[in-house]
Amino acid sequence: MKPGPNFSKVLGLSLVFLLSTQALYSGETSPAEPRYTVSPKLPAKLGDEKGYVRVEAKINRFGQVTSVRSISSSNNDLVDSCLDAMVRWKFEPAKKGGKPIASTVVQPFEFNIGTVSLAKKKDPFTQAPHAYKRTAPKLEDRYLNINGNVSFRVSLNSEGGITNIALKESTHPELVEPTRQALEKWKFSPSIEQGKAVPSKVLVPFAFKASVQTRNKTVNNAYALNKVDVEPTIISKHEPILPVALEKEQGLAWLMLYIDEYGYVAQTDTLKSTSKEMSRLATAAVSQWKYKPAIKKGRNVPSKLAVPFRSQGGLLVSQLPADKRAKPIQKKSPKLPASLSDISGYVRVLLELDEKGNVVRASARESSHTQLDDLAIQAAEKWKFKPAQRDGEPVASSLILPFIFGKS
């Protein structure tokens, strides 16, 4: 085992899991409350930054974030990470008279030398826990080109000692165990409320970035596809569903992927793009991909290939753009049983269509209530489409189909 990337390349931030949303109300009986959060992912250079960002988010009656904006900040460099995180949050919607309604919330993000707090201070003496001793994960050589993230939920006692570590999310399973081992060596100051140390929970996200040396080695030695005996083949592929606030983003991006001899995407270059946002979203997606590496003369070698990305029906897909999108010609609505008739919610179903417009696969990618998933999938499987076309020929395609349950 060799040390992983320099600690300046591996960022671990402790994110205080004391959520306190300041809602702006107009007579609601209960505020919107977060039920799924995503921590800000800062570049390494901002890992020890001090400052704040206040984000205003509009929440629809299903608890989805439909738009976000920064209303104040001490450092503009912190803003984008907070907005990117907030747009992916899910809420229990605000309610009036027991019925869900749209609302607006303001969420504070407080940065304090490696700690990000989401909690509103209860008094001037409130202090969030922060990590005063951090250890960088050590990675095997084959993992040094990974660009990804791992996040843990950590429970702390009133002395700041770690009592439990639970995985929250990870882009690469390979990163989990070495990151956990490093986190076990961290030291935290306790949370202080009203002058007393109290137990708390924190989110600790780690951001991994390929070192310059290993990345340049891959780029400089990458073979074009026509120079290898066996081309790289995809093993795992992440085509993300776009947040509601971004699902109307339209465009196309062509990326050049540099794949190392272990099958990881070491670097991406934008060849052309209709917008910076499309390029950013596509780059974030391919960083999670894994390939069976190219082979030349019987050994694994680095390679490079161009991949097109486009937004389609709320999904970011790695396909050539169709001249005409698939259009529904037969629809089926879900039937709610009596036991679920009072539920208001949504399910966003990923549909994969063949070149004849038939649904070959349907899966729930996001929903407000898991008990609605099967109902939406069963209905979606009965839909029929006029197929997408490219150069006048029918082609396979994918799209996100939203189902809304309940009355407005």
Walkthrough of the structure:
This protein is mainly beta. The chain folds into 3 domains: 11-208, TolA/TonB C-terminal domain, CATH 3.30.2420; 212-317, TonB (TolA/TonB C-terminal domain, 2-Layer Sandwich); 327-405, TonB (TolA/TonB C-terminal domain, 2-Layer Sandwich), CATH 3.30.2420. Helices cover 11% and strands 43% of the residues. It is built from 5 helices and 33 strands. The strands form 11 sheets. Strands 1, 2, 3, 5, 6, 10, 11, 13, 14 and 18 form a 10-stranded mixed β-sheet that branches. It has a 4-stranded antiparallel β-sheet with strand order 21-20-25-26, with helices on both faces. The chain is globular and about 70 Å long. The N and C termini lie far apart (58 Å). 37% of the residues are buried.
Task: Give a brief outline of the structure.
With 408 residues, this protein is mainly beta. The protein has five helices and 33 strands. It has three domains: 11-208, TonB (TolA/TonB C-terminal domain, 2-Layer Sandwich), CATH 3.30.2420; 212-317, TolA/TonB C-terminal domain, CATH 3.30.2420; 327-405, TonB (TolA/TonB C-terminal domain, 2-Layer Sandwich).
Task: Bin the helical content.
Answer: 10-25%
Question: How does the helix and strand content classify structurally?
Answer: mainly beta
Rg from C-alpha positions?
Answer: 23 Å
Number of helices: 5
Might you state the CATH topology name of the largest domain?
A: TolA/TonB C-terminal domain
Average pLDDT number: 84
Question: Are there runs of 5+ residues with pLDDT below 50, and where?
Answer: 1-26
Number of domains: 3
Can you identify the CATH superfamily of the largest domain?
A: TonB
